[in-house]
Design goal:
Blueprint: E1 4-7, E2 15-20, E3 28-37, E4 40-49, E5 53-72, E6 78-95, E7 110-128, E8 131-144, E9 166-175
Antiparallel strand pairs: 1-5, 2-3, 2-9, 3-4, 4-5, 5-6, 6-7, 7-8, 8-9
């Protein structure tokens, strides 16, 4: 027998403050604020990337929470699934000395570019009292107006940087 049962009568939160997963702190730090109205939520996030491609990113995410909530029979927590769409933009910087170890050219000191994109995916939010953990995964498309010469420097931007095609994120925070 499953320890989960469904519930439709749990009142959703109205606002939440969120932080990015501390395990990502080596490459990304971020904060966000979320407003929820029934099954829709609107979230604005600011991220600071400190890893391979330094820079900052702002995003705006619309989420649609599925109506059904799953409540644990023996514990006082539950989860709810959602789908999301996000728009994001920011700036990223290629810093040559971080790439010497893997053999990329180092004749430039810094190359700075703006980027913008859209993403979509699926997530799950676990809640207990005022605390929550949200995990989500999806796909993103990013546009960077690169010159032919600079495309060599931004090869890894779409794998490890803010323009990564595959998005896997975990956040935690408090909700009111």
């Amino acid at each position: 027998m499953s320890p989960w049962s469904t519930a439709y009568d749990i009142r959703p939160y109205s606002m939440a403050l969120t932080l990015t997963n501390p395990a990502n702190a080596m490459s990304r730090l971020g904060v966000g604020i979320e407003y929820r109205r029934r099954n829709f939520s609107y979230m604005s996030t600011y991220n600071l990337y400190t890893g391979v491609y330094e820079g900052k990113m702002q995003d705006f995410t619309w989420s649609f929470y599925l109506r059904k909530k799953w409540v644990h029979r023996n514990r006082k927590w539950y989860y709810q699934d959602y789908v999301y769409v996000k728009l994001f933009s920011g700036e990223s910087e290629y810093i040559a000395n971080k790439f010497e170890a893997i053999g990329l050219p180092t004749n430039y000191d810094r190359v700075l570019y703006d980027y913008a994109g859209i993403g979509s995916g699926y997530g799950r939010r676990y809640q207990r009292g005022i605390f929550f953990v949200s995990v989500k995964g999806g796909l993103r498309g990013t546009y960077v107006g690169l010159t032919e010469e600079d495309k060599l420097y931004y090869r890894l931007f779409y794998i490890t940087g803010p323009g990564a095609v595959i998005e896997c994120t975990a956040n935690f925070g408090i909700q009111i």
